[in-house]
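To illustrate the input format used throughout this study, we show a single complete record. The first block contains the structure-token representation of the backbone; no residue identities are included at this stage. The design step must infer an amino acid for every position from geometry alone.
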């Protein structure tokens, strides 16, 4: 049942996060460019292609194990740039450059309702991105115990860093906070913080999301290479290197193209949350628990799991409609390959 229901969702979510990471990396490069040339004419899609080019080269690392040092660097940079972002938001919030803050919920009527469900999907994606350790924590011992520790570490980092960025960013910018708070650090291409501080933050962000995209690309690589590789040949033999190079290059090129075509970061996160994170985190585990352990229909656990699964299914369906609707609206407003 895991292969039928979980596998496609996990792979789709991992690949979707490659698209989101490539987009965020391109945005970081664009911010670095604007700090150097405020009146520069280069478009966002050009920076996304640059980020995709780096990913294309790094994606040729053959195995998940070979990414261990890159992942360690990614963790350290995540802690640093989240600290910089939090400090930057607090500084702007206390300065005379602080924009006028409004904490009211935007939109009226149906737009507000869909906006709320869209936000729920984004939250599910943001705080449910421990998908790699989740996958590995379900396989046979001794990996199970080790990856459970990794999963706990993952969520400890996510909660401590993302909560600080979210709270400080919303406090500083209110309902004008952008999908990436770093976008608020420049107003009409004018930096609200010292250039050196912004440059360091954007560079750390770019390097970190580049490492993240490699991590989330690896499960897709493994699935594809099982079909095209020859296990009897060496990892670096021509027979395995050529198919690996072609399949990984195509994966990165497609992800880069999607990121450049649809540069709506918040919308993409909402789409992944509705279709991937909510089912994986709040629906399937509850159903699988009841089926596997055959919980009594009179027990609190059975009905608790059932209620959570039903409520989450409604949230997932409405969130899917809301996210697709918002992407259609943004596509009409900004067009494809928009320079956001």
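Output of the design step:
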């Amino acid at each position: 049942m895991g292969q039928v229901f979980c596998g496609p969702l996990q792979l789709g979510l991992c690949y979707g996060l490659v698209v989101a990471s490539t987009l965020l990396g391109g945005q970081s490069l664009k911010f670095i460019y604007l700090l150097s040339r405020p009146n520069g004419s280069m478009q966002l899609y050009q920076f996304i292609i640059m980020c995709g080019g780096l990913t294309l080269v790094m994606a040729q690392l053959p195995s998940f194990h070979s990414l261990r040092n890159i992942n360690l660097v990614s963790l350290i940079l995540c802690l640093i740039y989240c600290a910089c972002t939090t400090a930057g938001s607090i500084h702007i919030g206390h300065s005379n450059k602080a924009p006028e803050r409004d904490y009211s919920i935007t939109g009226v009527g149906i737009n507000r309702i869909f906006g709320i469900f869209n936000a729920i999907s984004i939250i599910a994606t943001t705080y449910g991105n421990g998908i790699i350790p989740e996958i590995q924590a379900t396989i046979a011992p001794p990996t199970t115990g080790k990856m459970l520790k990794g999963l706990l570490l993952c969520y400890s980092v996510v909660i401590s860093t993302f909560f600080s960025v979210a709270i400080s960013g919303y406090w500083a910018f209110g309902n004008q906070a952008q999908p990436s708070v770093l976008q608020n650090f420049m107003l009409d291409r004018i930096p609200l913080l010292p250039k050196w501080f912004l440059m360091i933050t954007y560079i750390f962000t770019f390097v970190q999301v580049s490492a993240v995209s490699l991590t989330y690309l690896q499960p897709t690589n493994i699935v594809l290479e099982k079909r095209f590789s020859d296990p009897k040949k060496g990892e670096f033999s021509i027979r395995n290197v050529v198919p690996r190079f072609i399949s990984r290059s195509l994966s990165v090129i497609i992800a880069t193209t999607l990121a450049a075509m649809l540069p709506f970061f918040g919308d993409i996160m909402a789409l992944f949350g509705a279709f991937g994170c909510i089912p994986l985190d709040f629906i399937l585990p509850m159903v699988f628990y009841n089926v596997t352990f055959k919980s009594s229909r009179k027990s609190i656990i059975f009905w608790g799991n059932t209620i959570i699964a039903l409520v989450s299914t409604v949230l997932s369906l409405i969130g899917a409609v809301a996210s697709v609707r918002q992407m259609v609206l943004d596509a009409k407003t900004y067009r494809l390959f928009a320079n956001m």
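Structural context for interpreting the output: DSSP finds ten helices and two strands in the chain. The mean pLDDT is 81.
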